[in-house]
Amino acid sequence: MSVRKRRCSDNVFRDLGFSVEESENLKTRADLMIRLTKILEDRRLTQTEAAKLLNVTQPRISDLVRGRIDRFSIDSLVEMLGRAGVRVSFVLKPAKKVA
């Protein structure tokens, strides 16, 4: 039996078969969610305290920490990060050509 190696991209969502555009959107949202969750953990906030800080409901924080990416837009995550005292900036680069 031979082992076939498959070349992976730097975007797990692309590797899972999402379109280039959707995979970039998902990766951006995932990165923002991870950063926001880490901030809340570092501050040792309860979900209720985090909800108050971010001006959202506690169930919204639950969705965040559970990684429910489908429930968050980039815009909503940037707003919450701003309320947490984080300035978000993006680096724009030309897209890589995909075969």
Describe this structure in words.
This protein is an all-alpha fold and 99 residues long. The chain has a single domain (13-83), classed as lambda repressor-like DNA-binding domains (434 Repressor (Amino-terminal Domain), Orthogonal Bundle), CATH 1.10.260.40. The chain contains 5 helices and no strands. Helix 2 packs parallel to helix 5 (74-83) and helix 3 (47-54) packs across helix 4 (58-65). The longest helix is centred in the N-terminal third of the chain and has 23 residues, at 20-42. The chain starts with 11 loop residues before the first helix and ends in a 16-residue tail after the last helix. The mean pLDDT is 89.
Please specify the SSE layout and strand pairing.
Layout: H1 12-15, H2 20-42, H3 47-54, H4 58-65, H5 74-83
Summarize the structure in short.
The protein is mostly helical and 99 residues long. 54% of the residues lie in helices and 0% in strands. It has a single domain, classed as lambda repressor-like DNA-binding domains (434 Repressor (Amino-terminal Domain), Orthogonal Bundle), CATH 1.10.260.
- The coarse overall form would be elongated
Would you report the number of β strands?
0
**What do we call the CATH homologous superfamily?**
lambda repressor-like DNA-binding domains
Q: What does the radius of gyration come to?
A: 16 Å
In helices, the fraction of residues equals 40-55%
Under the CATH scheme, which class?
A: Mainly Alpha
Question: On the 0-100 scale, what is the average pLDDT?
Answer: 89
Number of helices: 5
